[in-house]
Predict the 3D structure of the following.
Amino acid sequence: MLTSVSRRRLASEAMNQRVLIIEDEFLIALDVADTIESKGLKVVGLANARKHALSLAAHADIALVDVNLADGRTGPEIGRELAEQYGLTVVFMTGNPEDIADGVEGTLGVLTKPVMPEVVEQTIGYAIANRLGGMAIVPRELKVFRGNAN
């Protein structure tokens, strides 16, 4: 009985996770948002640069962050700030994963673009489990930074 209650509570908490998408390519951001919302989660906003991303940070739990944004190569620093100052679970999505091959302090991992919708879904599921202390299989396409594997 207790296990069943715990499982329901975890499922309820998982569905309440809010996602912030930080991506300077508007059509990519919309596509990712659609994928996340079809999973039943809320997207709190789309940002294409640092200032807007940080203004939305307090409303999110998870962030998908591109490395190169409208204001330059600010993604890694934004991701670190979101994780350290706001407690967000951060996953990078970039065409240049070698730019963050050694990881970014406090962040979960990196996906290499282009990213298929099912990979976004699996990665969000893994990020939620990681955030809430649950268990999930690491998506094959997600490079998890050292010390962050569940």
